[in-house]
Specification:
The chain is an alpha/beta fold. The chain is built from five helices and five strands; from the N terminus they run βαβαβαβαβα.
């Protein structure tokens, strides 16, 4: 069974990565922009109605957001996806949020087995 990859953020970086990964893996994407979701769907990417739905049962979570605030909200906010990721899942961050934010996030994720 191929890995399931949730791609959260289907902008200039996330969409091409999702399209490439979908050639080999099960990929489901989400973006808050309806336009970006439609564009991703036109490229053959399965689209979820929310970040939570996209992340359900994901082996990998590829995150392509603009900044550290969006990252924090996506992962730990009111609709944060970390609470539904299974232990052992991996978060792949492609955003340029700075090394301090990445190191803090890695430590936080490790505490929950992710």
């Amino acid at each position: 069974m191929p890995f399931r990859i949730a791609v959260l953020g289907l902008g200039a970086m996330g969409l091409p990565m999702a399209a490439h990964l979908a050639k080999t893996f099960e990929v489901i994407g989400f973006d808050p922009s309806e336009e970006r979701r439609a564009l991703a769907a036109s490229r053959g990417i399965a689209i979820a109605d929310s970040a939570l739905a996209a992340s359900a049962e994901a082996d990998f979570l590829l995150v392509a957001v603009r900044n550290a605030a969006q990252l924090e909200d996506l992962l730990y906010g009111e609709q944060g996806v970390i609470r539904i990721l299974p232990e052992g899942a991996a978060v792949i961050l492609t955003s340029t949020v700075g090394t301090g934010a990445v190191e803090a996030l890695a430590a936080r994720l490790a505490k929950s087995g992710i």
